[in-house]
Structure formats: structure tokens, C-alpha cells
Amino acid sequence: MAKLPPALTGGALPVVVIAGRPNVGKSTLFNRLVGRRQALVADTPGVTRDRKEAEAQLRGRTVRLVDTAGLEEAAPDTLYGRMRASSESAVAQADLVLFCIDARAGITPADSHFAVWLRRQGRPVLLIANKSEGRQGAAAAMEAYALGLGTPLAISAEHGEGLSDLMGEIADRLPPEAEAAPSGDEAGDVEGEEDERPAGPLRLAIVGRPNAGKSTLLNRLLGEERMITGPEPGLTRDSVTVMLHDAQGPIQLVDTAGLRRKARIDDASLEKMSVSASIEALKMAEVVVLTLDATLGVHEQDLQIARLIEREGRCCVLALNKWDAVEDRIATRQAISDRIETSLAQMRGIPVVSFSALTGAGVQKLLPVVRRAHDVWNRRVPTGALNRWFETMLERHSPPLVGGRRLKLRYMTQAKARPPTFILFGTRAELLPEDYQRYLVNGLRETFDLPGTPIRLLLRGTRNPFAEKE
Known about the structure:
By secondary structure, this protein is of the alpha/beta class. It has helices at residues 26-34, 79-92, 109-121, 134-141, 163-173, 214-222, 270-284, 300-311, 329-343, 366-377, 383-396, 434-447, and strands at residues 15-20, 52-58, 61-67, 96-102, 125-130, 153-154, 202-208, 240-246, 249-255, 287-293, 315-321, 352-354, 401-402, 405-406, 408-416, 421-427, 456-462. It has a six-stranded mixed sheet, sandwiched between helices. Strand 13 (401-402) and strand 14 form a beta hairpin.
């Protein structure tokens, strides 16, 4: 397949990477510096698996902050070996590495080993002695001098102690800021010329059940091993955001943890936090790629996820992954189409793309389909054309009687797009039966080419002032 455009690296923003062995508080520090709870935090070693990125403002400097998985000695083909490889890749791109240790636990052999490794990487390192609460913690932090990485900075990410000094140290150690580009006036823009500012990136979330191939798909789109993948289900625990470019501009792409049935999720488990992060990413997206394992067909949980996408008003693209492993493709495609048509009538015409994320076959078809779905989601129908269509629909099939009286439907208008939302006005319009509402929605979908996208129909009745008088 043709190589897809590479991911953005955040432009000229300096990259600050938080590294260290597991459970030293890297994700807690990440959340503190970013200023919001973005990375999952739990009292369990190894919560972070894929590196997570976010922009942060530190003493007037905007940086790209990277949270990484814990550094551990492990064979390359194991899960922990793949996590370490991801962390090493992040360190290699860093302008500054924040090497975290647990001051309460003292210097461990793993800390010493990775301190030696960091010195060999040739990257600037700031030594952080985390969990240094109170006087005893600050005294324990001094043991970190033995690592040979300079003066340790004692902080407590959990309690917010020492963070001001840390931000100052980071800002002082970063490369000098590049000079700002000349403004439009300095560049000689013509006065009165329209300022064409680029639109924000398309927000795209990849969701689905565990082991459907979501992370493999993201890696294939980026053209690099950004996410940790493997045969083990549930490898992705947190929602991870990356940027990429296609021919039409930037895309903010979010990989999410697998969504299982609620009955199979332990309320007290880390998985519940992962699922919450996935649902939040879905709600913040504009387009959602629902990834299915084509060899397993459409599961009831896939339909539940699709219904959630529709309820949130997001446009959806159905991605049939592992298509290379399907034996009877015609029968499989027909079975999936029949199931979708029957169970997701409210998303009739949903676009479907089949591919293999592992081999890359067919993946290049996905982003153009996503762009078309996004255009449909943003579509507006002219009021004149809408009401000419509405009159035709009324002539073809008159509104039913309700309480022995016929409803008088007068006109329609589109209130907004994203998703397409229409308001129907008329006497007692709020009593319009659901089957007639479906008749109108299906007509809107077919006449104005709105396949797959959620359509909202709001009813606004007009009250008769003499109805309650005798």
C-alpha cells in the first residue's frame, strides 16, 4: 500500500519526557503539569502502557509533555519489553527528560541501571525525587546524588509540593524559543483582505471491543509503532491522542481502550476508568470509527457501541478489520449489512470499510471515507428546498389522525448541523407518532443524501388560545 503521511511532531514545541521505573508517580506528575486529570492513575504498577502526550504551559513556555510506561528489564517480545521500547523511543525524541524516582523507596537497582542508560543517550536529564513529602522526604531525596545525574529536585506530585520550582527548572533547561514569524501586517498583507485562518483538526476516535485491532489500525495510519500491540486483549488502557495529516489537513486521532459489556466490568477495577476514558473520547469526537473483528461478525456489544455513538450525535464509520482472514467475504459482508440494517435503522446507510490493519491492505480507503462522513455530518439543507420536499412528503402520505383530529404540519427548518437537526412546526406537532417521524427522517436521508449520520427531528407545536375555553 502507499505510505500514509507521517504524524505531526507538534511543530517547534520542545518535547519534555517523563521517564522512570513503574509506580514512581510519573502519571500523577504528568497530570499536575498539564493541569488536568488526563492520564489514568492507580495504585497499581504498570498502569501506563502507551505513551501519552499533551501540551502544557510551564512558566510561559508551551511544551509537549510525554508520559511514558515504566522502564523495566524484559525480553523484547514480551509486553513489558514492548512497553520499554515505546518509552525508549520517546526518550530519543526528547529535548529534556524528567527522570523520576520514588524518594520513599530509596535508590533501587532499577533506578541505577536506567540512570546509566540515560547518561548514554546524550539527552538533557532533570532528576526528580518524587514522593518527598515533608522533611523526611526531602532528606531521603538527597540519596539520589548517587545516580550521577546532578542535583535531585525534591517534589510531591500527589500533594503539589515543589511543582513551582520544577516548572522553573524545566523552562530554564529547554532550548531557546524560536523567533516568532512576522505578522500579517509585517508581511505586507493587503488591508481589508479576508483572513483565512485554518480550521481546527478533525477529531476522530477509534472505538470497539477489545482485540478488534484498534491500536494496530492507529499504527498503520501513522506509519510507525506508536501504540503497543500484541495478541493479548485489552492492551490499551487509556485514551491516547496523536496528530496526523491527510490530503485535506490535520486529524486529531484518539485510540481508546476496548469497550466490554457492563456486566463484565468490575466497578472497582482499573478497567472501569479505562472504559470511562473511552466513552469520554467518543463524546469529544466528531467522527467515530467503530472497529469490528470481521472474522467474528457483528456482536451485540458492537451494536450497543453504535447506539451510543448515535445517541451522542456523532457520525460513524464501520471498520471491518482482519478482512484478510475472512474466507467467504461476500457472505460475511452480506450478513454484516443485514444485521446493521435490521438493528441500526436510525443509522441507515452507515459507511463501511473493510481492510487488514496488520498487513495494511485497504487501510488507505479509511480516511477518505471518514472525510466524506464528516462532510455529511456538517451538511446544511436550504430552507426553500427543504419545504418543497416537505410539501411533497405531506401529499404523498398525510399526517395521521391523533385523538380523532388531523395534525396540521406547517413547515420545517434546519436548526443546525453536526448532526443535521431539523425543527418541524405545526398545530399539535408534538403529538406526531414515531412511525411518521421515521417516515420523514428516512425521506430526509434519501432526498438530501445524508447516509449514516444521526438525524434529529424536533417537534414544535402551536397552541390554540381558544382550545381550553368553552
